[in-house]
Amino acid sequence: MMSWGQFGLQDANSPVMEELVFLHDFINMILIFIISFVGYIMLSMVNNKYLSMNLLESQVVECVWTIIPAIILIQIAMPSLLLLYMLDESIDSTLTLKVLGHQWYWSYEYTDFWSITDTLQVEFDSYMIPTGELEASMFRLLEVDNRTVIPFNVHVRMLITSADVLHAWTVPSFGVKADAVPGRLNQVKFIGQRPGIFFGQCSEICGANHSFMPIVMEVIGSSSFLSWMVCAGE
Which stretches make up the Cytochrome oxidase subunit II copper A binding domain (predicted)? Predict the structure, then answer.
């Protein structure tokens, strides 16, 4: 979710995004410690007129400032690799949506329900609402005419491709970003942990109106989602 004047990452709404935020904070904590420590050492060396050149050329000191950075890098690499494998983990999804990028809007298809009945075919285009048509509660350059609705606490798979040029389907709150490439099918998986409205945008330079193809995901309860599917398919 978003709020005016927000600084930093958006609030996480999936397990993957929570882990990404934890990793981001952990690495920043290490960086602040390194910068503070190195800055303190540099100031101490500048102000210390009794500094010995033999100390700076000592083999012990050389070993210390080689081993400690190596340990720090390992501490950063281990959670990074674990998270990388978590992102690539393949799990059977409960709901699959197809996403098609166009210049300059998104198309969505809920094909999981097509086998139930030929009349329940939910597919639509999602265009940005122009500034002149916005209501008081809408975000400029982010609101769309047709929101993408998904149930929360359900494992969702998005199959992403493009009809013309390169696009990128990105929703920061879910921690997902995938290129929409013509002739190629990419996928992302996530779980919306709580209801709400979450925003994203195309993250690939795709032409003159690249900044005018937002993404809006509305996460609702399962029963409300099924009711919406019936109404949308009529």
Answer: 92-231
